[in-house]
Design brief:
Order of helices and strands: EEEEEEEEEE
Number of helices: 0
Radius of gyration: 15 Å
Number of domains: 1
CATH superfamily: Translation factors
CATH topology: Elongation Factor Tu (Ef-tu), domain 3
Helix content: under 10%
CATH architecture: Beta Barrel
Number of strands: 10
């Protein structure tokens, strides 16, 4: 079995949660453009009560105007607004240099 160590990078702390048709649950303020991850990136949501929820980016919102220079992210409909209280920390999950595929072989994931 391969070794898979998860590394994390803190993106932002949630100050707003909205439900929109299409993008589903949207978190604000979102990451700054210097840390903007790709759609499909995996996230760890660390709630204020200490619990953790895993999610992935379904969409990236492009607000206009954008004085905060940040981009709210949509999590789709699998996460509902009640799952993400204000103050939740959003962390980007970075894969390790080695990851195990479902067939048991070791591969180097794209980051």
């Amino acid at each position: 079995m391969g070794h898979n160590t998860r590394r994390l990078h803190r993106l932002f702390t949630v100050d707003g949660v909205y439900s929109l048709a299409g993008p589903g649950t949207v978190l604000t303020p979102g990451p700054p453009d210097s840390l903007l991850p790709a759609i499909g990136s995996r996230l760890e949501l660390r709630r204020p009560d200490g619990t953790v929820c895993l999610a992935s980016i379904h969409s990236i919102q492009l607000p206009t105007p954008n004085p905060r220079k940040s981009y709210p992210i949509g999590l789709g409909s699998s996460i509902v607004p009640g799952d993400v209280p204000l103050g939740t920390e959003v962390w980007l999950v970075l894969e390790s240099a080695k990851a195990t595929r479902h067939d048991g072989t070791i591969s180097k994931p794209a980051v």
